[in-house]
Q: What sequence folds into this?
């Protein structure tokens, strides 16, 4: 098998009936920073993984080397749009990794126990899986509406104002600030404030003729002030005249 930049090329077929080989490139995984999910002494780094490959199918392909603990699939950083991926195949033992590096061939991706679906069959299945069934949709709607009704009822409860027998609104202790204690001294202070406020709110010039009379008085007062201002201006002008003798 060919080797390039430390990688070894291995043929990979889709199924046992397929005659076309797709090549993947493998080598032992090595990293600068340790990652517990990809231990270097048990992880095989695989490039050029076809887009239709799955974790289960790769486990089956590399099973001749030993038990595969996990497969981590990722998109290629260099060419993320071509669909091909890279994989980290983690074996349960170091010996299995060493054996995988010596493999000359791999199991097909598809097997009788775990058949691999590709092409139209795969796309059809993915499309059908993306459509929510009527039952699941109804369950989602029911959960949403139950949550919505609960929030609305809570809002109504928080805004509810209780009233006494005479129709007066009772102040409750809901909200951020607690209510004022109903003491006799507090009641007297409130009554005094209400009396003072009522005096300030006494209506003035309630009738139309009172408003008209008030306007006339204001006009007369303005005219009087205007005439007095004219006299003052005239006296000031006379005082400014130049008198040499």
A:
């Amino acid at each position: 098998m060919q080797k390039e930049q430390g990688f070894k090329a291995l043929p990979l077929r889709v199924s046992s009936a397929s005659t076309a080989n797709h090549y993947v490139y493998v080598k032992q995984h090595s990293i600068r920073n340790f990652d517990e999910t990809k231990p270097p002494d048990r992880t095989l780094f695989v490039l050029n993984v076809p887009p239709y490959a799955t974790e289960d199918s790769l486990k089956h392909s590399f099973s001749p080397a030993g038990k595969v603990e996990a497969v981590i699939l990722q998109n290629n950083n260099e060419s993320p749009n071509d669909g091909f991926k890279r994989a980290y195949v983690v074996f349960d033992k170091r010996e299995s990794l060493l054996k995988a590096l010596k493999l000359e061939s791999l199991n097909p991706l598809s097997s009788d126990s775990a058949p691999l679906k590709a092409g139209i069959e795969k796309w059809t299945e993915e499309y059908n899986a993306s459509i929510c069934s009527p039952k699941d949709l109804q369950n989602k709607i029911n959960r949403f509406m139950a949550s919505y009704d609960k929030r609305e009822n809570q809002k109504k409860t928080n805004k509810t104002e209780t009233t006494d027998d005479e129709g007066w609104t009772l102040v409750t202790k809901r909200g951020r600030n607690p209510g004022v204690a109903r003491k006799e001294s507090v009641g007297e202070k409130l009554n005094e404030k209400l009396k003072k406020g009522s005096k300030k709110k006494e209506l003035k010039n309630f009738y139309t003729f009172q408003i008209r009379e008030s306007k006339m008085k204001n006009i007369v007062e303005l005219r009087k002030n205007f005439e007095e201002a004219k006299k003052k201006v005239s006296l000031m002008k006379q005082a400014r005249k130049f008198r040499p003798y």
Notes: The chain has a mean pLDDT of 81.
